[in-house]
Amino acid sequence: MSGVFHAAILFLVAAGLQVVFGVQKIFNLACGSFYALGAYVGVSAVQAFTAAGGPPWLFVLPLAAAGLGVGAVGVIVERGLLRFVYDRDETFQLLLTFAVVLMMEDALRLTWGTAPRSTSALYLTYGQVRLLGAAVPVYNLIVIGASLAIALGIGWLLTRTVFGRIIRATADNREMAEALGVDIGRVYARVFTLGTALGTLGGALVIPATAAMSEMGIELIVEAFAVVVIGGLGSMRGAFVGALVVGILRSVAISVYPELEMLVIYLIVIAVLVLRPRGLFGGAAA
Amino acid sequence: MGTSRRDFLKQAGAGVAAVSVVGLPAAARGQARPGVPATPVKIGVLPIRAGIAAPVGAAGLRGTEWWAERVNKSGGILGRPVQLVVEEESNPKDTVERFRKLVLQDKVDIVLGGISTGVTLALGQAAEEMAFPWLSWDGTTQKGVDETMPNPKWAFRSVDNEVEAIAAGILTAKYFKGIKTVAGINNDYSYGHDCWQSYQAVLKKLGVEVKPVLELFPKLGVTDFTSHIAAIQQAKPDLLMTSFWSGDATILLKQAAAVGLFKTMKGVFTTAGGVHDSLKKQFTPEGLLLGYNSMYFDDPNGSALLKQFVREYKTKYNEYPPYECDHAYFCAESYKVAVEKAYAGARQWPAKEQLVKALEGIEVESLSGKRSWREDHIQMCNFYQGLTTHKNGYDFVTINPIEVVSTRQAMKPAGAKLLDWINSWKL
C-alpha cells in the first residue's frame, strides 16, 4: 500500500504534465515546482486553520482548498510567460519552463525561508487500519481515494463535457479548432491552470506525511518523467498506469532488493523506449 | 528553524557578501592595544543557505553573530572590533571561489564555516594552496580527509563524522541488551555509509552479536520513506539505526509513527537531535536513543554561557539552538583566544603562521563546555546522547539520562585507521 500512496501523488503530478503536453505540446519542467508550491501553501493553510481554532480532523479541507486554489498561479505563468513562446521552437519552451523552476525555487525561499516546513503531527489524526496484515495510515487511504476520484473526474471531463471535446479537438488539430471558432488562448490558459492545479494539489496532499522543502519537486519530477515515458506522452490513462507501475515497482524493489530502487524503474523506461517508443498508451492525445 | 523573510532578504544571495560590524558600541572603537591595528578584524563566514542543510547553516551563522556581538560589546579582540563578511556555501567550485574572494578581495583575517563534505574537502585544499587559515564547522569525512588533507597546515577540520555512530554503538550496548537483529537506514552518501559501517563495527567489538537484516540507503533529499518503512517492518529487526540528521529524521519518525513502527522495535537516531524542535511528542516515542551531536541545549549541568545563549537564542528566533551553533561559536572563540595567546608572547598582532601555531592544541570555553583543537587540527569535544523522554515542558522530546561521550573515547587517534582502531579497543 505504501507504493500505491506514492503512486497516487505521482499520478497527480504526472497528470498535470500530461494534460499540458497533450493539448499545448509543452513539456512543462516546472510541474515539480508547482508541486513544491502546493506543499508550502498547504502547510501555511493548515497552520492558519488550526491557529484560527479549526478542528484538526477537518484539516484536509483547507489543505485541499489551498492546493487547488494556488493552482491559479498557472494562469499567471501561462498568460504572463508561456503565451509568448508558443510559436517558437520547442527549445524556447523548455528553457522558459526551466526558468520558471529556478524562479519558483527562489520565490519559495524568499517566502517561506530555507528550513523544512511541516504540519507537525496532523498526519496521525485519522489513525491507522490493518489491510492485508499491514498497518496503513488512514490519511494515505484518503489520498489514494482522492487521486482515484480525480482520475475518474478527468476522464469524465475529457470525454463527457463540451470543454473536454474542445480540449481534445485542440489537441488533435489546433488550426482546425481555431478555424471553428475555438478561443485557443482561453483553452490554453484553462488547460495550463488545470495542469498546474493537479501538481499543486499533489503537493498539498502529500505534505501531512512529509515536510515542504524548496527542492522537493526535483525528486518527484524525475519519477514523473519516468511515468510519462512508460504511460505515453500526453495520455491520461498512461499517467494513471505509469504512476502505479513506478510507485509499486519502487516499493517492491525497496523490500526485495533495495539497491535496485531506481534501477528497476529505469529498466522499465528503457524497455518501453525500445519496445514501444510511444509508451503503453501513447498516440492518442489527451 | 525558520529564517524570516526580512533576515533572508538582508542576508541572502549567492555571491553577495553581507558585511557587518555586529553589536559594536562606540566606546569599543579605537582602543587597540600597542602593536595592534585599529582597523576591524575581518572574519569571513561561509554558511549554507539553501537546501536540506540550510537550517544547520543558519544556526552556525547565528552562533557566529552571537559571538561577534558578545566580543564587540566587551571591546573586541585586543581592542579591534569584529566585522563579519558573510558569503554562501553552495557547491564546491563556487564556494572555493568565494573563499578566494574573501581572502584576496575582502582581505579577511580568517575564514570560518563549511558543512557539506564535498565542499569542506575542496575548501581544505584551497586553504592549503593559498596558505590561509580556515576553521571548518563540520563536514569532514574520514576517507575524504585521508585522501585530500592528510597533513593540513592551514586547514582545521571538524571531528570525524562517524563519531556520533561510534558513540551510539557504545550506548546501544549499554541500553539495548539482548538485541539480535538490526536494520539500518542511512543516506546514500559517505556520511551515511561510514556511520552504518562504524556502528556495526563497534557493536561487534563490544560483543553485541547482531545480524544485520536490512540495509537501506535512500538518496539525500528523498521525502517519502513509506516504502522503506514497509521494508523495515517486513524485515522485523529488533532495532533500527539511522544517521538521518535533518528534515529527513523528522519525516522518517512521522511516517514511522503512522504505522506504529517503534511499537515493535528499538530505535537509534545518532544525530537527529540536530532538529530537536521538530521531533514532536505526538510522533516521537520515548525510549529511542537520540544523539544531539556536540551540544545539548537543555543540559541541566550546562555552563552559564550555554544557558545565556539558549535563553537569548530562544528570545530572538523563537526556537531552541541546535549543535551547529556550538561548532561555529567554538571556531570563532578559538580564533580570538589564539590571537590573544600569540599576542601575549610577541606583543603584536599575530601573523597567520603565528596564529596557526597558537591554535594547535588550544583549549577554549565553548557553549558545550571545554573544546580544543588537537595538534593535527581536529576539533575535540563532547557528544550528547540519551533516551528520549516526554517528561519535559516542551512539545518535543528531550533526553534522559544524558550520556556524554568525549571524542577522546570515540574518535580514532591521529594516523590510525578507523576499523583497526575499533578492533584494537581493550575491553
Give a written overview of the molecule.
The complex is a heterodimer of chains A (286) and B (427). With 286 residues, chain A is an all-alpha fold. Chain A has 12 helices and 2 strands. Chain A has helices at 2-24, 31-51, 60-69, 73-80, 90-112, 138-160, 162-172, 174-179, 184-206, 216-231, 236-256, 261-275; strands spanning 128-131, 134-137. In chain A, helix 1 (2-24) packs antiparallel against helix 9 (184-206). The radius of gyration of chain A is 19 Å and the shape is globular. Chain B has helices at residues 5-11, 54-73, 92-104, 117-130, 142-148, 163-175, 190-205, 226-235, 247-258, 304-317, 324-346, 352-359, 407-410, 418-423, and strands at 18-21, 41-46, 82-86, 110-113, 134-135, 155-156, 181-185, 211-216, 239-242, 266-269, 289-291, 363-366, 369-373, 379-380, 382-389, 398-406. Chain B has a 7-stranded mixed sheet, with helices on both faces. A 6-stranded mixed sheet of chain B has the order 1-3-2-4-5-6, sandwiched between helices. Chain B has a 3-stranded antiparallel sheet with strand order 12-13-14, with helices on one face. In chain B, strand 15 (382-389) and strand 16 (398-406) form a beta hairpin. Chain B is globular and about 70 Å long. Chain B starts with a helix and ends with a helix. The interface between A and B is large, with 45 and 48 residues.
